[in-house]
């Protein structure tokens, strides 16, 4: 902004005045502002938020005033207050420019020593506009008036009067942009706007009374309860006014009265919204007090009690309105004891954030991150938590509540002051945005609209700081305040808790133990006493680590509170921190790498499977950071990991040490894969491939180590080659976290070796490998299952290649042929493994397909599995493995098609379920829609099954019913929504459709 020179030696040019439109010189001439005696006016005009807009509005007023322009011109030259208010308002608001163009004498409202009207004055002004007088039934508290004007005339009169008063407030609020007028405090503006809303509702009720009761007094008692920002007396310039109606009696006439009030108010002033009433827009518009109380006692949700924090009698029967507030207040302050209090509020906050389109999140100052709603939500939550024990928190406005929370020690004084400043700054920006066109908005102009941003900066009193222009100052201030809100949003809940367990600030007020426990319970901790103990242990003493933890914990705990199990996550974090006491890098990484800390909290608060792995493989934490190509958790390749396991274990001659080395790397890889899975970085096939690869590598490492030890003991080479054939999910490369490793052991005596001795040696090798892998360990188990070998558990553990060939040629049963479809070499002698696979091809891919007898046998076995294998008490609809449309159903269907057609369709020679489904679709052996249904069911069931293990920390196939566990499984499974019931419904829908495909296939 250009400063006027001290000497007025010349008329400044339009450019120096901020006038860029080509019509500016002509417009100035029209006003007669081209002489030296107009210099003061021109410099004042240059200080308007948009000088061109102000000038255009003045020209329109000039046209409307005619001879009256001289009076305004004289006033502007002598009355700096008038000049500041008029130029301020028409330079910041095109809507008020339009208002003054239509009502050019309106400028007279802005002259002289102007004081804002009182609540009573505003009410009198609006009632006078419609000639309203007290109704015959009115009393001192029952503010019911009857207008003498109704219909469109009443609406027009009220609209002009209300707009006049709104303009007066806006002009006083904006005057500081032009002249050295006082800046109105935010709270003053909010209260004044709320008083205007009360007066407007009173006038609208007067018109409604005259309309609904034209021939007699209004005998009904109707109370209008202000809610939301109006109830808290912190209303915006342009906002819906939320109301609730209470009537005695509640009948058709009082409903009509309330409806007419809403119609008149919405036409003349602002949108009158009654959607916060019981049952929302579906509920009755008007209820009696007893009906309201009954609803809140039985049906109301947590957010409805949160909304009642702001309830205030606004007009109508104020005594009845106060009875409404008094009756519901105890329920409001007891809401934090409800079982669903935390989950309801968290879900509502996430729902609000999700409503903001991604492209607007950085510009949204009301609903985005670091926004007004963050402050309001946090303050209201703390009020609800502590207000049941502290009546000083029973206040309505956000700023007053912050002051009370700080006075009570629930929020740090500095934090409260900073949060208040940021809140008031964003409210100022919101007000300026709305004033421009008197439209409800809270979205900043896009970054490339410099003209709109520059206008906003000047309207919000932004001044260049010597290095940055007003536009740059605005951008920096918006970012700074949004960041501060996000930072303080975390501290708001947790800093006072930490003050209670660690003396971070000797002058700080400390929460009482009861208050700290209440606050933790409200943040989602089911065992708040234990959580408080963990905080104390983490911050104990005056050590550097304790101080760093105290700095980190507010943010860490906020992230934890959004996870399914904050209690388990906090305990895991304490255990991990205690295990990392000697690792200097640990806290440094959490402090300096925000992504690491946030991802760690999500993982710890979501999974009981991962924490022990991270404690034993802490270097994985470094991979939580972002690298040049994205998260480092994705930098590892499963094939490279497998080679690393094999080469690392090969350094040891002792099988025990070799397997320990392999286990260590497996632990690291499991921690990496599971963490990336919980964080949504890997899809189902990637997870299955990685788990199968690491299992195979550990198997190979153990086998190689045992064979090396055997050769050393014998002092001679091994008497036979040895291979491990993966079966089931291991063979298909589709292992889950809770899967066993189904295998076959095959050997082939070397030339000149005694077959019996070679087989005996091979059995010893197999037995030793199984014991090494199955040894007790705190790691996820390495269970080896050989139940799919010929003759099942009654058959020999190891067979020669020739023995397998003879058996399969002569004795193979239908289930054994089916099992061979997923056979694949996973460890040992690769040549032997390949010869085994070629040998079984004739069995598993028989010429002409399997016989109808075999198909009937498979159907019989499948029916038996369906009826007998499901665990007792399991729900067949939600058992991910054996349930309807679950993994077994899909896999049996795929395998039956393979058995019938694989000889003629080579692409079906595949052990992977998903890849085989692709081949089935490409060969048109099943419709594309059926293939997609089976694929979706397999992926959904596998994802759910893996999520069950990650959440519970142990193998499980049964989805839980509704509750915290189901919510946790849904979140870890990547369900995009707050309602775990919807996740379950989707699972049931997907598997039900897949089951229909299975039944058609097995019945064909």
From TrEMBL:
Pfam family, one: GlnE
CDD domains found in the cross-reference section: NT_GlnE_GlnD_like (cd05401)
Glutamate-ammonia ligase adenylyltransferase repeated domain residues: 135-323, 598-838
Known catalytic reactions: [glutamine synthetase]-O(4)-(5'-adenylyl)-L-tyrosine + phosphate = [glutamine synthetase]-L-tyrosine + ADP; [glutamine synthetase]-L-tyrosine + ATP = [glutamine synthetase]-O(4)-(5'-adenylyl)-L-tyrosine + diphosphate
Region (Adenylyl transferase) residue spans: 505-1004
A Gene Ontology term for the protein's cellular component: cytosol
Biological process per Gene Ontology, one example term: regulation of glutamine family amino acid metabolic process
Entry-linked InterPro entries: GlnE, GlnE_rpt_dom, NT_sf, PII_UdlTrfase/GS_AdlTrfase
Chain segments carrying region Adenylyl removase: 1-497
Domain PII-uridylyltransferase/Glutamine-synthetase adenylyltransferase: 347-493, 877-1000
Cofactor(s) needed: Mg(2+)
GO terms of molecular function: [glutamate-ammonia-ligase] adenylyltransferase activity; [glutamine synthetase]-adenylyl-L-tyrosine phosphorylase activity; ATP binding; ligase activity; magnesium ion binding
Protein purpose: Involved in the regulation of glutamine synthetase GlnA, a key enzyme in the process to assimilate ammonia. When cellular nitrogen levels are high, the C-terminal adenylyl transferase (AT) inactivates GlnA by covalent transfer of an adenylyl group from ATP to specific tyrosine residue of GlnA, thus reducing its activity. Conversely, when nitrogen levels are low, the N-terminal adenylyl removase (AR) activates GlnA by removing the adenylyl group by phosphorolysis, increasing its activity.
Family label: Belongs to the GlnE family.
Protein name: Bifunctional glutamine synthetase adenylyltransferase/adenylyl-removing enzyme
Organism of derivation: Rhodococcus tukisamuensis
Originating gene: glnE
């Amino acid at each position: 902004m250009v400063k006027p020179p001290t000497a007025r030696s010349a008329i400044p040019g339009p450019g120096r005045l901020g006038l860029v439109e080509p019509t500016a010189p002509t417009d100035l001439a029209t006003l007669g502002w081209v002489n030296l005696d107009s210099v003061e006016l021109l410099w004042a005009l240059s200080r308007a938020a948009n000088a061109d807009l102000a000038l255009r509005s003045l020209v329109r007023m000039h046209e409307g005033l005619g001879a009256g322009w001289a009076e305004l011109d004289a006033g502007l030259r002598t009355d700096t207050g008038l000049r500041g208010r008029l130029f301020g308002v028409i330079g910041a608001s095109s809507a008020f420019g339009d208002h003054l163009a239509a009502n050019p004498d309106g400028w007279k409202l802005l002259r002289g020593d102007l004081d804002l009207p009182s609540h009573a004055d505003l009410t009198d002004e609006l009632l006078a506009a419609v000639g309203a007088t007290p109704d015959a039934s009115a009393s001192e508290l029952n503010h019911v008036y009857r207008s003498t004007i109704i219909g469109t005339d009443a609406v027009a009169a009220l609209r002009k009067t209300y707009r006049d008063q709104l303009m007066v407030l806006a002009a006083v609020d904006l005057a500081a942009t032009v002249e050295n007028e006082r800046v109105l405090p935010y709270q003053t503006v909010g209260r004044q706007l709320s008083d205007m809303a009360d007066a407007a509702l009173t006038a609208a009720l007067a018109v409604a009374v005259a309309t609904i009761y034209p021939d007699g007094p209004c005998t009904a008692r109707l109370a209008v309860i202000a809610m939301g920002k109006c109830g808290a007396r912190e209303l915006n310039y342009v906002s819906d006014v939320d109301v609730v109606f209470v009537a005695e009696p509640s009948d058709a006439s009082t409903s009509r009265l309330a409806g007419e009030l809403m119609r008149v108010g919405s036409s003349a002033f602002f949108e009158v919204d009654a959607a916060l009433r019981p049952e929302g827009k579906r509920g009755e518009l008007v209820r009696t007090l007893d009906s309201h109380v009954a609803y809140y006692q039985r049906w109301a949700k947590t957010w409805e009690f949160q909304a009642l924090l702001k309830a205030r009698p606004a007009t109508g029967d104020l005594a009845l309105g106060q009875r409404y507030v008094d009756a519901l207040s105890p329920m409001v302050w007891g809401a934090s004891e409800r079982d669903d209090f935390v989950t309801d509020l968290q879900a509502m906050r996430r729902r609000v954030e999700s409503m903001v389109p991604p492209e607007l999140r950085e510009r949204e100052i009301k609903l985005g991150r670091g926004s007004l709603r963050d402050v309001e939500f946090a303050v209201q939550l703390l009020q609800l938590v502590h207000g049941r024990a502290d009546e000083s928190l029973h206040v309505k406005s956000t700023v007053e509540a912050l002051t009370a929370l700080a006075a009570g020690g629930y929020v740090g004084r500095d934090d409260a002051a900073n949060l208040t400043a940021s809140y008031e700054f964003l409210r100022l920006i919101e007000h300026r945005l709305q004033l421009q066109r008197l439209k409800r908005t809270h979205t900043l102009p896009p970054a490339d609209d410099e003209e709109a941003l520059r206008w906003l900066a000047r309207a919000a009193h932004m001044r260049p700081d010597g290095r940055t222009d007003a536009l740059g100052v605005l951008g920096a201030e918006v970012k700074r305040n949004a960041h501060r809100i996000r930072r303080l949003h975390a501290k708001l809940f947790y800093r006072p808790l930490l003050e209670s367990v660690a003396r971070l600030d000797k002058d700080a007020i400390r929460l009482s133990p009861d208050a700290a426990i209440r606050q933790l319970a409200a943040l989602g901790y089911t065992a708040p006493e234990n959580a408080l103990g963990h905080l104390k242990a983490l911050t104990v003493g005056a050590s550097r680590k304790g101080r760093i933890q105290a700095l980190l914990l507010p943010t860490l705990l906020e992230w934890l509170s959004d996870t399914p199990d904050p209690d388990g996550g906090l305990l895991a974090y304490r255990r991990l921190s205690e295990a990392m006491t000697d690792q200097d890098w640990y806290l440094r990484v959490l402090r300096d790498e925000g992504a690491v800390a946030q991802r760690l909290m999500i993982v710890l608060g979501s999974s009981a499977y991962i924490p022990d792995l991270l404690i034993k493989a802490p270097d994985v934490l470094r991979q939580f950071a972002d690298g040049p190509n994205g998260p480092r958790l994705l930098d590892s390749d499963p094939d490279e990991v497998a080679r690393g396991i094999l080469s690392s274990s090969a350094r040891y001659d002792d099988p025990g040490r070799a397997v320990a080395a392999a286990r260590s790397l497996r632990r690291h890889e499991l921690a990496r894969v599971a963490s990336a899975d919980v964080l949504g970085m890997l899809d189902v096939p990637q997870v299955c491939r990685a788990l199968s690869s690491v299992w195979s590598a550990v198997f190979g490492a153990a086998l190689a180590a045992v064979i090396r030890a055997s050769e050393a003991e014998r002092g001679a080479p091994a008497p036979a080659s040895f291979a491990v054939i993966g079966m089931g999910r291991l063979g298909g490369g589709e292992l889950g976290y809770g899967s066993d490793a189904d295998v076959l052991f095959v050997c082939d005596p070397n030339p000149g070796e005694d077959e019996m001795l070679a087989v005996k040696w091979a059995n010893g090798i197999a037995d030793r490998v199984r014991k090494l892998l199955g040894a007790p360990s705190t790691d996820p188990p390495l269970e080896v299952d050989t139940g799919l070998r010929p003759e099942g558990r009654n058959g020999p553990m190891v067979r020669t290649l020739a023995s397998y060939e003879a058996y399969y040629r002569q004795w193979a049963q239908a289930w054994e042929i089916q099992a061979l479809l997923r056979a694949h070499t996973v460890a040992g002698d690769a040549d032997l493994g390949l010869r085994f696979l070629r040998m079984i091809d004739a069995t598993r891919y028989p010429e002409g397909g399997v016989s109808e007898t075999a198909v009937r046998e498979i159907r019989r076995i499948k029916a038996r599995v369906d009826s007998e294998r499901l665990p007792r008490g399991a729900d067949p609809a939600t058992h991910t493995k054996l349930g309807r449309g679950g993994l077994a159903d899909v896999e049996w269907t795929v395998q039956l098609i393979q058995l019938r057609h694989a000889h003629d369709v080579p692409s079906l020679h595949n052990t992977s379920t998903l890849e085989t489904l692709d081949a089935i679709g490409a060969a048109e052996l099943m419709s594309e829609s059926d293939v997609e249904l089976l694929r979706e069911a397999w992926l959904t069931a596998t994802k759910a099954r893996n999520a069950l293990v990650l959440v519970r920390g142990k193998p499980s196939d049964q989805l839980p019913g509704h509750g915290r566990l189901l919510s946790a499984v849904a979140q870890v499974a990547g369900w995009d929504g707050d309602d775990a019931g919807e996740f379950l419904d989707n699972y049931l829908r997907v598997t039900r459709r897949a089951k229909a495909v299975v039944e058609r296939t097995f019945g064909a």
